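Q: What changes when guanosine-5'-triphosphate is included in the input?
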Amino acid sequence: MEASDIDTRMRALERYRGLRIEPDAWTVLRLDGRAFTHFTAGRFAKPFDARLRDLMVAAARSLMEDFHGLYACTHSDEISVLFPPGWRLFDGRVEKLVSVSAGLASAAFTRACGSAACFDSRIWQGESEADALAYFRWRQQDAARCALHAWCYWRLREQGLSVEAAVGELAGLDSDGQRRLLAEMGTDPERLPLWQRRGVGLCWETVEKPGYDPLRAIEVTARRRRIRLEMELPAGEAYVQWLGGYLAASKGQGDD
Ligand SMILES: Nc1nc2c(ncn2[C@@H]2O[C@H](COP(=O)(O)OP(=O)(O)OP(=O)(O)O)[C@@H](O)[C@H]2O)c(=O)[nH]1
Ligand SMILES: [Mg+2]
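A: The predicted holo structure follows.
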């Protein structure tokens, strides 16, 4: 077989090579820590540890910067990064987007943490900005649900219940029941830190920095984009309104 024949045949067997994202859709890359139940055990405080949160923020920041995300939000071991219609990094190739984003997040987290951790990555696409806003509202609901469950579970465990007993105790409880249980155990669910219940948002902001141009010997003002952390995101519909406002304000603002 000629070298060029084998080349063509082997490339054709890279079956997913041609898979591309929809160019006109809103895109979210969602990354999730691999086996973080195991990875966090013994390393981080239960159920929440601000050190883990900061490592997740470091990973989210690397994705925002390297992939030019519009907005990102992280809670627990997951990160969602939003991209607008027309975003064509890697010409929209699915294999590249999921593998490089997972690699970037894993590298940034590992460098900041000092222990090797691994992320998976998937793609979500919605037809409209409203879809994108609903997506982030959905992930926030997941954050709130998981935070309440995790607090109940670990309070029960602290009280001496076995894994099975704690899981059993929570099995039949809806969120109101879990809130009541947590309050009975001395933790007010309404006073849990907002970053645990709603996640941390990463937004771009433009700041003006005074400087000096030595060539022209004049004072100048440089405009820089930087990432601002939102540690106290609004909830529910107010979150949708807030994020919609941020996206509207972001339109037309590219890299300086
Ligand atoms: N100790 C500790 N654990 C956390 C914290 N945030 C998230 N986790 C844990 O991270 C895990 C995330 O859950 P999942 O992503 O569903 O499970 P996973 O073990 O990562 O499994 P895969 O994602 O399927 O690979 C849960 O076990 C959480 O308790 C934290 O602040 N402290
Ligand atoms: Mg995980």
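Observations recorded in class: Strands lie at 26-33, 71-75, 78-83, 119-126, 200-213, 218-230.
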